[in-house]
C-alpha cells in the first residue's frame, strides 16, 4: 500500500458512499397519512386514527382540500396536540408536524417540469390603492383614470419586477427550475416542479404573500379602549384613523387566546429598509423572525423608536398583525424582531418573502392546474433506455481499451453517478433536462480524468518504470491537469449558481456536485482500488492496455495555416447569419407567443401533436393540464411563436380544425387564445449575461494565475469561437434558441475549457523540463501531439453517449443533444487548432516585445 493509510481511506470511502446512497431513499412519493402513522409513538393510536378518518371525510366533502390541510383542521378542531403523540420531541406545534410529514412523504429527488410535470398557478396582478396613489403622485396624474393609463404604459416593467420577486421566493425554497411567464393582460403563470398535493399548499401560501411589512403605532390608550370594546362590542365606535386588529395564541386543549389592539391606519415605517430576515428562537424557545436593516432603514427605525418611547409598535405583515411590543427605549442597533405564533415553515416562508421583496400588487390566484411532463412519458422512458445503452457503450469501450484499468474506471463511474444523485437528493436539487446536461458533462469529465491518469501511467511504463512506481508517477503527473481542468469548470458552475437563475442555476447545481464527485472518485477512489489490486495480486508486473493511437507526430504548424483562416471565416459567416436572421433565431422561451387552450375528450401524445403541427409550419409546444375543479378540468395548451400566428388572422380556428381532422378521437372543443410573454424577461437575461461574463472572467483569472496571461486569453478566444460556430451551425439547420439550448451551450463551454486546460498543462510541463532550449512553437506542437490520444479518447467516449441520444433519444431532446454533439466536436478542434496557435502567437509576441525592450534599454546604456 506504499505506506498509505489504506484502512482510514477505505473507511472514508465507505462512509461517503453510504451517506449519499442512503440520501436517495425514498425515490418515490409516499402516502401522507401512512407517513403520519410512522411518526406516531403508537402506529395504531386511536386518537390519530380518528383524526385521519375525520380528515378523509373532510376531503370527501371538499375534493380540493389537501391532506395536510384536512389533517390540520381535524387536529385543531379537537384541540389535539400532535407533539404528544409523535416520537420527535423537537417539533413545537401542529403546523410543525404537518411540515415534517410533508418532508418525510416527499421523494428524495425532485424531477423537473420537463421530466415529471408539476403545478401551474395562474396569478392575476392587481395594483393596490397604495401603489396607485404613489404612482399618481410621481406621474402628476390628477385622477384614477390618468393613473390607470400610466399604470398600463409601465405595467410590463412592474410585472418584470414581480416576476423576479417570485423567482427569488421560489429559489429560497430551493426551487430553481420554475417557469414564470407573463400571460394575457395582467396575469402571470408560474409552473413549478411540485407534484405532491400538500407541497402545493405551502408553495401557494408563499406565492400569494405580498410581503408588505408595516410598522404602525398602537393607540396610546389601547387597554382602556379594549375594555370598553369588550363590554359593548355592538355599540363601540373605533377611534378615527385607527382599526381594530387582533392576534391569536394557540393553547393546547383550549380555545385560542385573543389579544385586541387599536392600530393606526397610517404606518410610520415600511419594510423597504430590511436587509436580511431569518428565523431565530428567543430565550424561552419561542420562534421569532429577526430583522436587520440597511443604514437608511436603521436610521429610520431609530427615529421612530426614539420619538415613540412608551408606546406599542404594531408589526403588520400583509394586513395581519403579528405582535405589538412596547418601545421601552430607542432602538439604534438596526435590528428588530417579529414574534408570534409561527410554525418553522411559516418562519422560513416569511423570512424568504421579506428578503426577496414586497409586491407592488395584490395577488389573486385565479386557477391551479396540474401539468403533464413536457417531454411526455414515452420520451422520458425512451431517453432513460437510450442513456443506459449509451452508458453501456462507454463501459464497453473503456473496458476494451484499458482492460483492468477500464474496469476500475467503470466502477468509479458508477459510484460517481450514485454520489451525484445522492448529493442532489441531500441538497434538495431538482433534476431537469439542463441538470442532465450537467450529469452528461460530469460523465465526460470523469472519463477524461481516468484517461489522463491511465495515459500518464502508460508513459511511465514505457520509460522503464515498474508497475507500482509507474502508477504512483502517473497519478502524480496527472494531478495538476485533473484538478485544473475540473476547477476551471467548477469556477464557471459556482458563478452560474450564485448569479444565474432558473434553468441556468439548475444546470450549475448538477455540474458543481458532479465535479466534486468526479474529483473524489478519480483521484481518491480509483487510487484506493489500485492499492487493493496490488495488495491482492502482489506479483502483478504490468498493467496491460490497448493502444489504438500510437505517438502522434502531426505537423500542426501546417495544420494551423489552414485551420486558423477557416475558423475566422466560419466565425464571420456565423455572425452574418445571426444578423440576417435577427430575432428569428430566438424560440418562444425568449420571444413569447400565442397560447391556445382547448378542452378535449381523449389525450393524444404531445409529441404526435407537435409533429403534426410542424407539417403545417407551426413550431409549437404542447402541454396537458388538469384541475381539481369539476368544470373545465382537462385542457391542452398549445404555445406558438407570435411570428407564426401571423400566417392566419384566427390561429385558434385553424388549429382546432386541423387537429380535429388529424386526431378526431380527441374532439377538441372550446378554445381560449391569449398572448404569452417569454420565459426570459429582461431581469432574467441581465442576470444570465452577468453570470456568463463573470464565468469567463473567472476562468481567465484562474488560468492566468496557474499558467500565464497568454493561455487565459487564448482560452477565452477559443471559447467564443466555439459558441459562435456551434450556434452558427445550429441556426443554419433552421433551429431556434430555447432555454435548454442555453444550458447545452454552457455544457459545451465546460467541456471545451476542460480540454484546453489539459493541453496547456502539458505545455507548461514541457517548458519546465526543456533543457535543450527548444523553440516555444515546437514545444506547443509536441504537447498537442502528446495529448492527442487523450483528447480523441475522451471525445469518443463522450460522443458515444451524445450520438446515441441524438439518433434514438426522441424529438423532445433533439435540439439539446445536437448542441452538445456540435460542441464536443468544435471544442476538441479548437483546443488543437485555435487555442494552441493563439497561445503560441501571444507568447512569442510577448517574448519578442520583451527582447525589443531589453535591446532598447541596453542601447541607451
Task: Describe it.
With 861 residues, the protein is an alpha+beta fold. It is built from 27 helices and 19 strands. A hairpin with a 2-residue loop joins strand 11 (313-317) and strand 12 (320-323). Helix 13 (376-402) packs antiparallel against helix 14 (404-426). The longest helix has 47 residues, at 814-860. The model has no long low-confidence stretch (mean pLDDT 79).
Could you tell me how far the N terminus lies from the C terminus, measured between alpha carbons in angstroms?
61 Å
Strand order of the largest sheet: 3-4-2-14-17-18-16-19
Structural class: alpha+beta
Count of runs of 4 or more consecutive helical residues: 27
Q: Which word captures the global form? A: globular
Total beta strands = 19
- CA-based gyration radius: 32 Å
Amino acid at each position: 500500500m506504499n505506506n498509505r493509510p489504506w484502512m482510514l481511506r477505505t473507511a472514508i470511502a465507505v462512509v461517503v458512499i453510504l451517506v449519499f446512497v442512503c440520501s436517495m431513499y425514498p425515490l418515490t412519493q409516499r402516502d401522507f397519512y401512512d407517513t403520519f402513522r410512522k411518526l406516531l409513538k403508537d402506529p395504531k393510536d386511536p386518537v390519530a386514527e380518528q383524526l385521519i378518518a375525520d380528515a378523509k371525510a373532510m376531503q370527501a366533502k371538499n375534493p380540493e382540500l389537501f391532506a395536510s390541510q384536512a389533517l390540520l383542521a381535524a387536529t385543531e378542531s379537537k384541540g389535539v396536540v400532535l407533539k404528544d403523540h409523535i416520537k420527535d420531541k423537537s417539533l413545537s406545534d401542529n403546523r410543525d408536524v404537518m411540515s415534517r410529514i410533508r418532508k418525510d412523504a416527499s421523494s428524495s429527488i425532485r424531477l423537473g417540469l420537463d421530466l415529471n410535470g408539476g403545478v401551474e398557478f395562474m396569478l392575476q396582478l392587481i395594483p393596490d390603492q397604495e401603489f396607485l396613489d404613489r404612482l399618481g403622485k410621481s406621474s402628476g396624474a390628477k385622477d384614477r383614470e390618468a393613473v390607470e393609463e400610466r399604470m398600463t404604459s409601465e405595467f410590463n416593467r412592474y410585472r418584470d419586477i414581480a416576476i423576479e420577486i417570485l423567482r427569488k421566493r421560489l429559489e429560497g425554497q430551493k426551487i430553481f427550475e420554475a417557469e414564470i411567464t407573463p400571460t394575457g393582460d395582467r396575469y402571470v403563470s408560474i409552473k413549478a416542479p411540485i407534484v405532491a398535493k400538500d407541497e402545493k399548499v405551502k408553495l401557494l401560501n408563499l406565492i400569494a404573500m405580498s410581503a408588505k411589512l408595516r410598522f404602525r403605532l398602537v393607540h396610546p390608550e389601547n387597554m382602556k379602549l379594549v375594555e370598553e370594546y369588550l363590554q359593548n362590542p355592538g355599540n363601540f365606535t373605533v377611534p378615527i384613523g385607527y382599526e381594530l386588529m387582533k392576534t391569536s395564541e394557540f393553547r393546547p386543549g383550549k380555545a385560542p387566546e385573543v389579544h385586541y389592539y387599536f392600530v393606526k391606519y397610517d404606518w410610520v415605517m415600511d419594510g423597504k429598509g430590511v436587509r436580511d430576515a431569518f428565523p431565530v428562537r428567543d430565550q424561552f424557545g419561542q420562534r421569532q423572525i429577526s430583522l436587520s436593516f440597511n443604514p437608511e432603514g436603521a436610521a429610520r427605525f431609530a427615529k421612530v423608536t426614539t420619538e415613540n418611547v412608551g408606546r406599542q409598535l404594531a408589526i403588520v405583515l400583509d394586513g395581519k398583525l403579528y405582535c405589538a411590543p412596547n418601545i421601552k427605549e430607542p432602538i439604534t442597533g438596526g435590528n428588530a424582531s417579529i414574534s408570534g405564533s409561527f410554525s418553522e415553515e411559516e418562519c422560513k416562508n416569511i423570512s424568504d418573502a421579506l428578503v426577496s421583496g414586497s409586491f407592488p400588487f395584490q395577488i389573486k390566484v385565479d386557477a391551479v392546474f396540474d401539468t403533464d411532463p413536457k417531454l411526455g412519458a414515452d420520451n422520458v422512458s425512451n431517453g432513460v433506455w437510450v442513456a443506459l445503452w449509451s452508458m453501456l457503450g462507454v463501459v464497453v469501450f473503456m473496458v476494451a481499451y484499458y482492460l483492468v484499468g477500464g474496469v476500475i474506471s467503470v466502477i468509479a463511474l458508477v459510484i460517481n453517478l450514485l454520489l451525484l444523485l445522492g448529493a442532489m437528493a441531500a441538497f434538495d436539487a431538482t433534476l431537469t433536462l439542463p441538470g442532465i446536461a450537467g450529469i452528461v458533462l460530469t460523465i465526460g469529465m470523469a472519463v477524461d480524468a481516468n484517461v489522463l491518469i491511465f495515459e500518464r501511467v502508460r508513459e511511465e511504463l514505457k520509460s522503464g518504470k515498474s508497475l507500482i512506481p509507474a502508477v504512483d508517477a502517473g497519478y502524480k503527473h496527472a494531478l495538476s491537469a485533473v484538478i485544473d481542468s475540473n476547477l476551471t469548470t467548477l469556477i464557471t458552475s459556482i458563478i452560474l449558481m450564485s448569479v444565474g437563475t432558473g434553468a441556468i442555476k439548475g444546470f450549475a447545481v448538477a455540474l458543481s456536485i458532479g465535479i466534486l464527485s468526479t474529483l473524489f472518485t478519480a483521484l481518491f477512489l480509483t487510487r484506493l482500488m489500485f492499492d487493493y489490486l496490488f495488495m491482492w495480486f502482489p506479483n502483478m508486473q504490468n498493467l496491460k492496455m490497448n493502444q489504438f493511437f500510437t505517438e502522434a507526430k502531426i505537423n500542426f504548424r501546417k495544420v494551423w495555416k489552414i485551420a486558423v483562416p477557416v475558423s475566422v471565416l466560419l466565425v464571420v459567416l456565423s455572425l452574418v447569419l445571426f444578423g440576417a436572421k435577427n430575432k428569428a433565431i430566438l424560440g418562444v422561451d425568449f420571444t413569447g407567443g400565442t397560447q391556445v387552450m382547448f378542452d378535449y375528450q381523449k389525450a393524444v401524445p404531445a409529441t404526435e401533436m407537435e409533429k403534426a403541427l410542424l407539417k403545417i409550419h407551426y413550431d409549437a409546444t404542447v402541454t396537458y393540464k388538469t384541475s381539481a375543479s369539476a368544470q373545465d378540468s382537462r385542457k391542452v395548451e398549445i404555445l406558438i411563436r407570435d411570428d407564426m400566428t401571423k400566417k392566419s388572422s384566427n390561429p385558434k380556428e385553424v388549429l382546432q380544425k386541423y387537429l380535429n381532422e388529424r386526431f378526431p378521437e380527441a374532439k377538441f372543443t372550446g378554445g381560449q387564445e391569449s398572448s404569452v410573454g417569454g420565459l426570459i424577461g429582461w431581469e432574467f437575461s441581465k442576470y444570465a449575461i452577468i453570470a456568463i461574463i463573470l464565468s469567463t472572467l473567472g476562468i481567465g483569472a484562474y488560468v492566468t494565475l496557474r499558467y500565464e496571461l497568454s493561455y487565459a486569453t487564448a482560452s477565452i478566444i477559443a471559447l467564443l469561437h466555439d459558441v459562435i460556430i456551434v450556434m452558427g451551425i445550429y441556426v443554419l439547420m433552421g433551429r431556434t434558441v430555447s432555454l435548454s439550448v442555453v444550458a447545452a451551450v454552457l455544457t459545451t463551454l465546460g467541456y471545451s475549457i476542460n480540454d484546453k486546460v489539459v493541453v496547456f498543462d502539458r505545455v507548461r510541463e514541457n517548458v519546465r523540463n526543456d533543457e535543450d532550449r527548444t523553440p516555444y512553437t515546437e514545444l506547443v506542437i509536441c504537447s498537442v501531439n502528446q495529448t492527442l490520444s487523450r483528447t480523441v479518447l475522451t471525445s469518443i467516449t463522450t460522443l458515444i453517449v451524445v450520438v446515441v441520444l441524438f439518433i434514438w433519444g426522441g424529438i423532445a431532446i433533439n435540439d439539446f443533444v445536437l448542441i452538445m454533439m456540435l460542441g464536443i466536436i468544435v471544442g476538441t478542434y479548437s483546443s488543437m487548432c485555435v487555442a494552441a496557435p493563439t497561445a503560441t502567437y501571444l507568447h512569442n509576441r510577448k517574448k519578442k516585445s520583451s527582447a525589443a525592450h531589453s535591446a532598447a534599454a541596453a542601447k541607451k546604456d
